[in-house]
Amino acid sequence: MGKYFGTDGFRGEANKDLTFEHAVKIGRFLGWYYGARQGKKAKILIGKDTRRSSYMFESALCTGLVASGADAYIMHVTTTPSVAYITRVDDFDCGIMISASHNPFYDNGIKLLNSNGEKMDEETILKVEDYIDGKLEVPVADREAIGRTVDYVAGRNRYIGYLISLSKYSFKNVKVGLDVANGAAWQIARAVFEALGAKVYVINDHPDGYNINTDCGSTHIEHLQKFVVDNKLDIGFAFDGDADRCLCVDEKGNEVTGDHTLYIYGLYMKERGKLLNNKVVTTVMSNFGLYKALDKVGIEYEKTKVGDKYVYENMVQTGNRIGGEQSGHTIFIKYATTGDGILTSLKLMEVMLAKEKPMSELAAPVVFYPQVLKNVKVKSKPDAQNDPDVQAAVAKVAEVLGDTGRILVRESGTEPVIRVMVEAESNEICEKYVDEVIAVIKAKGHFA
């Protein structure tokens, strides 16, 4: 990770951590960089979510891009996966998404995508950061070399058409609830489901610039759970602010997480001979109950570090076809280069309709184990993590749990803390073993 850009872009409070000057500079560098590399005017795509500050950052990025000689194509309010898709299929040099995903409205972020719709490579990110810090000079364009902005709402419409084309079934007579989080999916999700014939019930679809993710969407799934039950719906889907993640609610109001999605669609692929390598890709934070369920149906799995970036990298390197996180980032690599919440909802609908079973029955084999996670503020994450006594305590817990649970101790990527997590058959067992390991960390003097 760089100075400004983390695993999911440059993110922070708007005009405090991430300022409009930063956005102008990012645009200035990218407009020059891609133009200079190919000796012609760069084409760069921009999308944004519904935050008030997204309009400011859109204008700032466009200013920087056209001043450096690039043409900026504006998709307006749209989802992160739509920007990734259109960047790839319409031959853009790169894509930019303005969003802080599931964060509150006062935060924002700038995500950079390469011409394949994938997260930008580290080398280019570091060059952007060097320009922000004044370590590089970039010329301005003049005369006929100055760029322009282009309204590209047609790209968003083409993405909607793409999603519709992926459905193998009509959704006629299926009652579907959608919580669009007052975010980027607020128009797209309804359009897709209505085009496929569903009877659509939508909540949190009145964005005002301030209410994105506020007590709604995938981070507040309880509202959709109640909505589905109260309205006797067949299924519900909740998205986050930029719609790259999706959580589901079954007809009984139960939450269906990203882990459930991996099981449900992974098994569906296996049954049809489509699960290459017979593997799904998870992160280390997937629930132990998912692994037990996969074991029972003979599906193997890989575990990556936390972050959809690492899931995608694994899939590219190994040829695995489905992967994701419990939070609802699910990657179907045949169809997308990033997590795509609306695509995920369509894939879950496909399984439900193909098998003619309610979602509650499809998700039932994944029984979540109780989990306790505690954060320990430490002086040095590596010192605490690598302490022989701490490692011995962790190994002892792992041995005692055997195949009835697991322990995970990892460093936070953003805070000076060690995370100690135990999954087991009861909360009491989890608490006991988490506290035992924390006591060793404390006794060895690692507490900050």
Summarize this, please?
The protein is an alpha/beta fold. 40% of the residues lie in helices and 21% in strands.
Structure description:
It is a single chain. This protein is of the alpha/beta class and 448 residues long. Helix 2 links the parallel strand 3 (43-48) and strand 4 (71-77). It has helices at 20-38, 52-67, 80-89, 122-132, 153-166, 188-195, 222-230, 258-271, 288-296, 308-318, 341-355, 359-363, 381-386, 388-401, 427-443, and strands at residues 5-6, 9-13, 43-48, 71-77, 94-98, 107-113, 149-151, 175-179, 199-203, 235-239, 246-249, 255-256, 279-283, 300-304, 322-324, 330-332, 371-377, 406-411, 417-423. The protein is globular.
The total strand number stands at 19
Number of helical regions: 15
Computed CA radius of gyration, to the nearest angstrom:
23 Å
What ranges have pLDDT less than 50 throughout 5 or more consecutive residues?
none
Q: How much helical structure, as a percent, in the residues?
A: 25-40%
Shape: globular
Our measurement of the CA-to-CA distance between the termini, rounded to an integer number of angstroms, reads 24 Å
Describe how the helices and strands are arranged.
Blueprint lengths: L4 E2 L2 E5 L6 H19 L4 E6 L3 H16 L3 E7 L2 H10 L4 E5 L8 E7 L8 H11 L16 E3 L1 H14 L8 E5 L8 H8 L3 E5 L18 H9 L4 E5 L6 E4 L5 E2 L1 H14 L7 E5 L4 H9 L3 E5 L3 H11 L3 E3 L5 E3 L8 H15 L3 H5 L7 E7 L3 H6 L1 H14 L4 E6 L5 E7 L3 H17 L5
Parallel strand pairs: 3-4, 3-5, 4-7, 8-9, 8-10, 13-14
Antiparallel strand pairs: 1-2, 2-6, 5-6, 10-11, 11-12, 15-16, 17-19, 18-19
